[in-house]
Design brief:
single chain; mainly beta
Length: 149
């Protein structure tokens, strides 16, 4: 929940739910994101990290270092793997970040256990491409519902 208590000024903010899903990262499939546009934050240059790409895959995986922010996120996605799955429903979020550092970046994180990147995927509803603006006195509520498949 975000509220703007000001009687005169607007409030701008961003939000991101850091949802870690315990799953075998190399076997995860995230869908439906095909046809959605995203920025790839693993690109080497600032220009490349800012350029929108169209998702061509039927299901997104994280077998390599992945840090992608999808615009116009669907209100429901499935995160599946052999023997398990999770449905993620989102309300009032306009982006979905999919993140896993794999060994390439995970081995450089001081608080990441060795091999920890093989046991999770982050699927993060958010409002991170641009800012949400609330007029004085307005409120906003974002919601995420996780259900086993």
């Amino acid at each position: 929940h975000v509220g703007n208590p000001s009687s005169t000024d607007a409030l701008e903010f961003q939000a991101l739910l850091h949802t870690y899903v315990r799953a075998p990262a190399n076997d995860v499939a995230i869908a439906p994101l095909q046809g959605k546009y995203y920025v790839d934050k693993t690109e080497a240059s600032l220009e490349a990290r800012s350029k929108l790409k169209e998702e061509k895959r039927e299901a997104v995986d994280v077998r390599v270092f992945t840090d992608s922010v999808y615009e116009d996120a669907p209100s429901k996605i499935d995160v599946t793997w052999p023997g398990g799955g999770l449905e993620v429903k989102m309300h009032e979020f306009n982006t979905l970040t999919v993140w896993n550092p794999q060994a390439e970046a995970g081995s450089k994180l001081g608080d990441m256990e060795v091999g920890g990147w093989y046991r999770f995927v982050c699927v993060e509803p958010g409002y991170v491409r641009g800012f949400k603006k609330l007029a004085s006195g307005e409120t906003w509520t974002g919601q995420q519902v996780l259900s086993l498949l």
